[in-house]
Amino acid sequence: MPKIILIVDDSSSIRAVVSFTLKNAGHEVFEAIDGEDALKHLDGKKIDIIITDLYMPLLDGIGLIREARKLEHYKFIPMILLTTESQEAKKQEARQAGATGWIVKPFVPEKLLSVVDKLAR
Questions:
Q1: What Rg, from alpha-carbon coordinates, does the chain have?
Q2: Where in the chain are the domains?
Q3: CA nearest 80: which of 112, 56, 42, 110?
Q4: Using CB atoms within 10 A as the burial measure, which of 13, 32, 100, 112 is most buried?
Q5: Are 69 and 95 in contact (CB under 8 A)?
């Protein structure tokens, strides 16, 4: 079933690849360039999943997750970090902020789609 997904990454090439992968699988995609930009999309409209980078200017991925979890419409939606970071301490910090999952870049499109399918029910 198609999902509405917000992709947040300061890299336009990563946003393009993730967006292409998700759109080809039939999902609807919104894009944001950083956490602050992403918060503008969290205005009550339906979003099924947020996929965010960790390191971004203005508001990083963990900060975005913390802020999104405070919003009524987005408290319980899946939020996935898609990042080059693989340190266990950062993963723990992300889990404490409310992250649902963690995918390390470079990602395999099939794995991303598998995670989206599992989380978006």
A1: 13
A2: 4-119
A3: 112
A4: 32
A5: no
Which tokens is 46 given?
């339906």
Structure token digits, residue 53: 């980078």
Quick one: CA dihedral 94, 66, 69, 115, positive or negative? negative
Closest residue by Cα to residue 49 from 87, 71, 24, 81: 81
Q: Is residue 37 within a helix (H) or strand (E), and if so which, with residue range?
A: helix 35-41
- For residue 121, what pLDDT band results from cuts at 50, 70 and 90? low
Of the options 3.40.1670.10, 3.30.230.80, 3.10.20.30, 3.40.50.2300, the CATH number for the domain spanning 4-119: 3.40.50.2300
Find where tokens 């404490």 sit: 96
